[in-house]
Every structure is written in C-alpha cells, then in structure tokens.
Amino acid sequence: MKVEELKSYEVLEKREISDINSVTYLCRHKKTGARVALVSNDDDNKVFYIGFRTTPKDSTGVAHILEHCVLCGSREFPVKDPFIELAKGSLNTFLNAMTYPDHTVYPVASCNDKDFQNLMHVYLDAVFYPNIYKNEAIFRQEGWHYELDEAGELTYNGVVYNEMKGAFSSPDNVLYREINKALYPHTTYGYESGGDPENIPELTYEQFLDFHRTYYHPSNSYIYLYGNMDMAEKLTFIDEHYLSVYDRLEVDSQVASEAPFVVPVRRVREFPVSEGESAEENTYLAWNMSVGDTLWHFRSLISPCAPYPARL
C-alpha cells in the first residue's frame, strides 16, 4: 500500500528532492492532527523520532525531568530502565532523547529492520504510556528527593538536579541563560527548560503529571521517518497501536513573541570562581539584540517588500 492510500492520514504535500535522492511527504493524522514528515530514500540507516512542543512556564525543569522519566519503563516494556537495556543490546546507530527550550524529541536509528521496528515501538510506548502514573519513585529518582548527607543534614538529590548543578557551575552556561532571561523574559525562552537547581525542588509530582497529560498528546506531536522502509507499514503501525486511541485535543503550546524593549536593559550577575583565580580574568561581557522573527529569512528571499509569512 502507498502512503497516499492510507485512510488514517491525509497527505498535505508530496515532493521529490533530487539533491538528497528522496521523496518527501508532509502528512497529518486525520483523527488527532498529529503532524508527520517522511523522507523516503535508499539509505539503510533508518531514522524515527517523535517530538512534542513543550513550553514550560517556570524553571523547575519539568520538561527535562519528564524526558528522563518516560524512559524508565512503560505499559508494554515495564523494565526498570529500557533505555539502558536498548543501549546495551540494540543494533542502533543512534539512541537518545533531548530537551530544548521549546520542544522535546526522542530520536532513534538503526540499519536493521527488526531492530528499528523494536526501537520505534519502545519509544512510542514510552512517551504515551510511561509508568510515571503508577510509580512516583521514578519522578523522585530522576527529578528530586530529600536525602540525609553524611553529617545528618537534609539535602536535595536526583539525577536531573545533580546534572543541572553541574551545568550551572559553568560560567559560559550561566551567561547564556542570563542572556535568554534578559531578551525573552515573558516567553518560554526566559525560563530554564533543563531546570534551575534553585527551582527544581518546587516541582510537585502532580504538576509533573499534568505536564505530561497536557503536552504528550498526539495533537501536539511531530513524527519523523527517514530512510529505506515501507513508510505505509510504519504509519499503519503507529496509527493502530497508538494514535487511533486518542481524540483530537487543542493544546496551547504556542510560543509567544516578546514585545520590543523601549529602552536597553543592563544586567549584572555574579558567579563563583576558584580560590586564587583573578576576577578580572574571569569577567564576561555580552551585548545582545533580538531582531525580527525566525521566519524573516523567507521574507528576505522573496522580496524586501513582501508581507511577513504566516506562522507554520
């Protein structure tokens, strides 16, 4: 069966791109509105990912913690850590998950057909049916929990909490975050999607679950397939095992535009340096501007007088 013949999807665009010897499709799942991009070619290295637009409204790191937690067991794969098991036993050529300021993606790749199908199945089950609702300990382990240190003092611990403590020890990372906070204070980019160690312990278990209920829905998803495979077969599997169970949902995940500044903004932030290091040699200065929109390059390519294109 061809992609165009699938009843569960509508093909919005089909295009041959000779530069990469590929036939591409932009599709939409009819029932849920899930967006699908296909790049069909003779590359044996097959790629799949599912992504969600995740726009946190604070710096508790909920998107980052959730990325860790969904890969700690699911409905059909209830092992403690399927991600580690896949890394050890799979024939994958790529296996990871990444959290960005405005989206989260789960990409996998393999040259083996059976292995690729299994990887895709594990990741789809992980994002839609994670064990986080059955086991709060997953959130506590990956996010944050209380612990007594050797001195008997109450401290915070957790995989993401400790990871971000390390990230925040880098002056370059601190500078980058301060730039985003200054340029985009009223958008998702003004928050730390990875989690600020000062704010991570503010995240509750219920808020964490609400984030998954809201954003990890097919209506807010982006699905991508690349390589030499039966695209119609893969789309049928995705529909029958996952997407068809859901109804369409209006998910408010849009990224708002930051209003222009009336006057320049100046920020000063201190960060620790090692004992004996010179403060002068470890001082950073940055001058930044936010200009236009991410789609403005289309305008400049078309005509300097053309109207701004609508958001895709």
SSE layout and pairings?
Elements: E1 9-17, E2 22-29, E3 35-40, E4 46-52, H1 62-69, H2 82-89, E5 92-95, E6 98-99, E7 104-110, H3 113-128, H4 136-142, E8 145-148, E9 154-157, H5 159-167, H6 171-183, H7 205-215, E10 221-227, H8 231-241, H9 296-302
Parallel strand pairs: 3-10
Antiparallel strand pairs: 1-2, 2-3, 4-7, 4-10, 5-7, 6-7, 8-9
Helix pairs in contact: 1-7
Structure description:
It is globular and about 65 Å long. The chain has helices at 62-69, 82-89, 113-128, 136-142, 159-167, 171-183, 205-215, 231-241, 296-302; strands at residues 9-17, 22-29, 35-40, 46-52, 92-95, 98-99, 104-110, 145-148, 154-157, 221-227. It is built from 9 helices and 10 strands. Helix 1 packs across helix 7. It has 312 residues and is an alpha+beta fold. Mean pLDDT is 90; it is low at 303-312.
Summed up:
The protein is of the alpha+beta class and 312 residues long.
Q: How many helical stretches? A: 9
What proportion of the residues is helical, as a percent range?
A: 25-40%
Number of strands: 10
- Gyration radius, rounded: 22 Å
Average pLDDT score: 90
Distance between the termini: 29 Å
Biggest beta sheet summary: 8 strands, mixed
- The oligomeric status of these chains comes to single chain
The global form is: globular
Strand content: 15-25%
Low-confidence stretches: 303-312
